[in-house]
Amino acid sequence: MLMHWTFDWGWCLGGIAVLVAGALIVKFHQAIANNLASGVASYDKVKLFGILACVLGVVFISNMHSVILYFIFHLIMPNQFP
Fold first, then answer.
1. Distances in Å between the alpha carbon of 54 and those of 1, 12, 38, 60, 72?
2. Every domain of the chain and the residues it spans
3. Smallest Cα–Cα separation from 29: which of 62, 60, 56, 51?
4. What DSSP character marks residue 9?
5. What is the pLDDT of residues 44-67, one digit of tens each?
6. Distance from C-alpha of 32 to C-alpha of 14, rounded to nearest angstrom
7. What is the pTM for the complete model shown?
8. Is the pLDDT of residue 82 over 70?
9. Is 65 exposed, middle or buried (CB count within 10 Å of its CB: 0-12, 13-18, 19+)?
10. CA distance 14 to 22
């Protein structure tokens, strides 16, 4: 039996917040890296974290995180989940 997808406004608003935070990290990655990381050496790392936050925000908006987690846990422990 497959898990059913449902829409939830709470996760949608949370996903929008994560998406905006990720977009701000991508936009200001140089200033963030200079002040919070090791400067020029970490520009790409900070930008990567911002892009990953944007992707995670889109997953939260669509409420697909529970479906993805269900499939991961079903692969690990197939007899525990119906």
1. 31, 13, 23, 10, 21
2. 9-76
3. 51
4. H
5. 999 999 999 999 999 999 888 888
6. 23
7. 0.80
8. no
9. middle
10. 12
Please give the full DSSP string across 10-79, using - where no structure is assigned: HHHHHHHHHHHHHHHHHHTHHHHHHHHS-GGGGHHHHHHHHHHHHHHHHHHHTT-HHHHHHHHHHHH-TT
- The pair phi, psi for residue 41, each rounded to 5°, is -65, -20
The DSSP call for residue 2 is P
pLDDT at site 69: 84
CA-CA-CA-CA torsion for 46, 48, 51, 52, nearest 10 degrees?
Answer: -110
